[in-house]
Amino acid sequence: MDIDLRGRTALVSGASTGIGAGVAIALAREGVHLALTARRKDKLEDLARLLKDVSDAEPLLLPADLTDKEALEKVAEHARGALGPIDILANCAGGSRPIGTDRAEDVWNEALALNFHAARRLSEALLPDMKEKRWGRIINISGSMEPRASNAATPAKAALHLWAKGLSCDVARYGITVNCIAPGRIKSEQTMTRLHPTEAARDAFIKANIPIGYFGEPEDIANMAVYLASPLSRYVTGAVIPIDGGMHYFAH
What we know:
By secondary structure, this protein is an alpha/beta fold. It is built from eight helices and seven strands. The chain has a single domain, classed as Rossmann fold. It has helices at residues 18-29, 41-51, 69-83, 105-133, 153-171, 189-195, 199-209, 218-229; strands at 9-13, 33-37, 60-61, 88-91, 136-141, 176-183, 240-243. A seven-stranded parallel beta sheet has the order 3-2-1-4-5-6-7, with helices on both faces. α2 (41-51) links the parallel β2 and β3 (60-61).
């Protein structure tokens, strides 16, 4: 099925591994020209080698720390300079930040910068071109709104949801949609090494919280991201779409 994405341009943040890499691969398969950013240059280069098997177009690699406002602005500028106006922004950068009750202010600041402000700033940098073309897609990878403990990333993701809903109303008349995907437990570096580092821990969490009975794959998120990036999703905006194997009904 041709979903009419060939020749479009996309910037994918957090693209080095996990969900971000899965989204990049899925978009490349549809013929999208990619700019990829993440902190780890070596991981971006590994992904670029994988993309050779699914796309003839070589991705633009832009290693950067998106919590640095100046570095973020350069990423947007370089992406536009190399690819032209960016049609699709996939904000996949983010990370869990478990905290206690006495964590330093810099932990909160970093969590907000990574999980909210990076997506907002990239969107603001690319929106003028989308408005001029009267077409655009902004897709944010967010998170669960049902926390089990204090985590500095959770308020940042809540801010992402409400900001995206408001923005979707502001830009809809330009043919731009803004949506969030809320992943459950996806097999990623963070999930498998930090959140649930042992097989026993994974099995116990799945049994207690995930009706479908297993952790998802990055492709499960990427498939939805590709749909939201395509013209097929033109009437979907301001949505928060959980992809979690039913976990959101039971994660209390």
